[in-house]
Amino acid sequence: MKKQVIDVNQITKQVAANGKHAPVEILHGISLQANAGEFLSIVGPSGAGKSTLLNAMSGLSKPTSGEVHLLGQDPYRLRASQAAEFRRKQIGFIFQNYNLIPALPAFDNIVLPLRLAHKNVDRQKVAALLKQINFAADPSNFVSNLSGGEQQKVAIARVLVANSRIIFADEPTGALDSISRQIIFGLLRHLTKQGICIVMVTHDIEMAAATDKAITLRDGRLEKVINQPTAEALFQALNEEGR
Ligand SMILES: Nc1ncnc2c1ncn2[C@@H]1O[C@H](COP(=O)(O)OP(=O)(O)OP(=O)(O)O)[C@@H](O)[C@H]1O
User: Fold this and answer.
1) How large is the ipTM?
2) Which listed residue, 48, 142, 148, 183, has the most CB atoms within 10 A of its CB?
3) pTM for this one?
């Protein structure tokens, strides 16, 4: 039987609008589950709430109501230090804005999770991984001197070396050329074969069509769950929503 690793139950998210009015609800009662080894994509128009959902379900931004369990733990009930350790050991993130440390070289950014977890840094393994993802820059360069696509590769490499059990990715290949995008998707796919669960927000229908399950969002509501999605089924679902 498949092991459930994500359980999101009826979550809502309200935010203060300009500090004046009553809070605005931007996620309305979303429930979803995912298993170990499953590749989930979240699609929908701009402003549908995809990043808000990803942040709420990954333990980064507490929902206003509802519950989130990751690997059986409610991340919002952990003390700050426990939550930080849980994230460091079990959860990987690829953020839309990369979330790298500009004052550190690319290499140090990549191995930071390993150093924080007091794990050995295998330089050859990191070098092989960088070669695999076509990282052409010098890893001793500060990330602030890298292009957007190179920074995105550093953020991806950081997750790939960290051995997380769940990876949350917000537009992980948005800044990449099509060859790099294919390579990185292939590497993420390979991780799911090893039992890692990946949840990816994307505008790329072709890539979403290569995941195991796609969730369509619109106006903060979950519209459809499409198992083994095809590009046609996704285009149709997104167009139907627009009517
Ligand atoms: N802190 C906030 N305060 C006010 N409004 C917010 C806040 N965070 C998000 N929103 C609004 O909630 C809606 C959903 O935003 P979100 O970034 O989750 O959408 P998205 O589907 O990820 O969009 P995109 O595809 O453009 O990245 C948007 O209308 C956004 O303006």
Assistant:
1) 0.96
2) 48
3) 0.92
